[in-house]
Amino acid sequence: MTAGPEVVAVASPPFPSVGLGHDRRGSWIPTWGMIATRFMELRKRRGLMIALVLVNIGLPVVFLTIRLLAHAFAPKSYGPAGGYDVFNALVAGVLFVFGFIVAATLGCTAGSVDLAEGMFRHLVVTGRSRLALYLARIPAGLAIVVPLVAIGFTIVCAVCVFAAPTQINYQGANVPAGLSVSGLEHWAANHPDDVICNFPSNGPIATNVSCGGPGGGPGGGPGGGIVKEPSGSVAPSQPTPAMIRAEVVQIAQQDYSDYAKVFLYPSNSLMIRTGLWIELEAIVGFIVGLGLGSLLGQRTVAVILMIVLEIVLTPILSRANIPHLIDVQRSVVGLAVAHLEPSGLGFVFGGGGGPGAGPGTSRLVPESRTVAIVVIVSWLVGWTALGAWRMMKRDA
User: Fold this and answer.
1) Positions in the chain whose pLDDT score sits under 70
2) Where do the structural domains in the chain lie, given as residue ranges?
3) What is the pTM of this model?
4) Burial class, 19, CB count within 10 angstroms (exposed 0-12 / middle 13-18 / buried 19+)
């Protein structure tokens, strides 16, 4: 009987040696899989997503819908839903502030959710770098914040352009848009009451004109309204048409540069620059909120602090001139972002100015663009470093 070939069992290594040199779990650079996981974790928080959509998209939609319906049913009582003024009010008064709050809320959640839900220990035992775990939250959160802000801003732009009025409201008077100097002079000559009673003038009024009020409108009935009288001389009770025409033409010439800065609806370049500016505010809010949430380890307190910063502290510190603390005020990130605001918008935080306002009309604390950029970069880098440091030092 012949013996078969002897079989020798060779034990294979438990892990292939080929992959040992490619294990990058300790790398500080987050992988695509880590970013996608963080994105899915945030997106599945339905309550948070609904709140973000309602605040960032729902508020402008409700406001614009009410204006559209009101104008459709009562056009003589309610003005058009769109236009330059509506765009300016929504951007400076709503999107700028609420975009920051939306982004900060998501950032505070992303920075504290793992610790609050007891998942931080399980992430650490995988061997992944804690720095990579933190940095993965930045692109994941921005992938949610940036589209939300863009959708809300796009809705505002669309309504303000397609539902814009046919005439601009300049100093309380309805004036055709885009007139040349001679065109504005010709319009003023045909509407002397509107010009004298509403347009600002740099010199004394050479005629006395009734400007509305009880008992009369512009140029109204006897004894009605406010009468603009010449200063330093006695004007005739019945000014001649030639005197009135010369007066309104002179006023139109003085105000043309200011009138030319007011538009029916925002230009394409202004909308693009404004959109980038709003996104910058949202990015700052998210990254600062992410760092603060990671530093505190909880979401509620971090969100409250971010709201107080944006709604209470920033408006006060942006306008109040506090002696010996002016440099501290300039270090506030909200003021720095406000100083990067595109020209042509009304100033945020009630800083004065408005559509067509010339330079030097802002009541915000003065700050150069270079300093503003340095402040923004410092906040982004500083809060990212603080949040990452706290995650790396936290006990699992």
Assistant:
1) 1-26, 116-127, 203-239, 261, 349-362, 395-396
2) 26-166+264-393, 167-259
3) 0.75
4) exposed
